[in-house]
Design a protein that fits this description.
Number of helices: 6
Structural class: mainly beta
Helix content: under 10%
Protein name: Agenet domain-containing protein
Distance between the termini: 33 Å
CATH topology of one domain: SH3 type barrels
CATH class of one domain: Mainly Beta
Largest sheet: 10 strands, antiparallel
Radius of gyration: 25 Å
Shape: globular
Pfam families: Agenet (PF05641)
Number of strands: 34
CATH architecture of one domain: Roll
Amino acid sequence: MSLRPRQSHGFSSPAKQRKKAPKNSMTPRTMIRNRLPSYLKPGAAVEISSDEPGFRGSWYPGTVITIPSSDKDSVRCQVEYTTLFFDKDGKKRLKEAVDMIQLRPPAPPMSEREKKKDIAVGEEVDAFYNDGWWEGTVTEVLGDGKFSVFFKSSREQIRFRKDELRLVLENFLCCGDSIEGLAILIVTVITMQYILARVDPETAREIAKQMFSSGTIVEVSSDEEGFKGSWFVAKVIETIGEDKYLVEYRDLTEDDGIQLLKEETDFLHIRPPPPSEDGIDFVVGDKVDAFYNDGWWLGDVIESMQDGIVGILFRQSGEKMRFGRQGLRLHKDWINGTWELPLKRGGIKRAKKVSCDRNVRPKKAIEKQEFSIGTAVEVSSEEDGFEDSWFPAKLIEYRGKDKCLIEYDKLKAEDGKELLREEVNVLQIRPQPIETVMVNPFEKLDKVDALYNDGWWVGVIMKVLAKSSYLVHFKKTEEVLKFHHSQLRLHQEWINGKWITSSKSQAV
């Protein structure tokens, strides 16, 4: 696919709109020394992802050969694949250097409860295919104990047995049987998020200056061993220079047990208290903060009991405890001055069950759709930064069996005058969805398409605002942007010649 004009016509993904952050004072070498995941060591079994076109969304088993050296500014590891080979005879395993963030520990073995669990339409799964695990969505439950899985990256739908499927990584948070494996997986996610550095330091510094004056009630975090993932209520005593604050804790005392503890902290470890939400019924899969030992600790709901009592698994320690509603709050992240909520709440419990006696004709893969010349279509892209986006266009002509020429409705060619024409694979086009007027407002966690820079981008409603506006989270870029109701439509997938709605009732 040819490159689209981005700069002259303002055409870019939500990710491209973020201001460039100043260089972090922490070098890759320091990050490796301080933040190298505990599972990452020579000889360790891992799963390896790829950003290559045609391989996005796949994870291959392998082994770590070498890890980044502390005396080099590198975050690359040498790995050896278990199921991929360099030679045709399958005797020499493929070796490759990959970034540390492309690695994760293998998923823990499925428990007996997980094996018995019903897989529902809309559930996100990994399917073992062509020697690796591929991320997909269950679209049909077949009568012979098999399932049709749709792969967004290739637009294919393939049938699998249940033993060839597993829950995607984030859904392991809802399974409380394999505590040790679960704790390792969660630590991996936390480490990756730190390395990716979602927080813009300059933005965080300016917000802190405006918000945290003397007397302000705040919450303070710590990077000390044993305290990661916790927040303690405090009061700002005074500012120290440009970046630091002297705080006095509300519930922590000095060694004498009388005087309240005072401590110095920086702008990256301080935030306002999150807004309260009363009357929440917590369900399995919720990310929560639990008030314990004078602070709020991050955990996951792994069991739900009567009278609002729930079982919580703490990420850092692997401990499991039970709490009532009074000691819990829904976890939120303070990112660049905005409160971000978890994407999913109770995915396993809320999955829509579908009867297994449906008479469905199994298909190896999705059939190529033939559209008439001049048909209004939407076009997807495999370019970095443009995943999960669709742009309106018109079909001009077919070129062979797999290619076609399209003309975009609003994207311009390099001269800025003519509409852009482009040759694409026929699997990258679909008809434009029938326009439907959403009379009722969208709800939190609805899956939507947002109209942005002349294209439709797949996202999730994170917060319902006043005046028919919403905050929408984009998973690929970790962006949260504001949209009006008129700029959104309910997300649908074009599968086997029909539109399948992917709302929160099915996908969450």
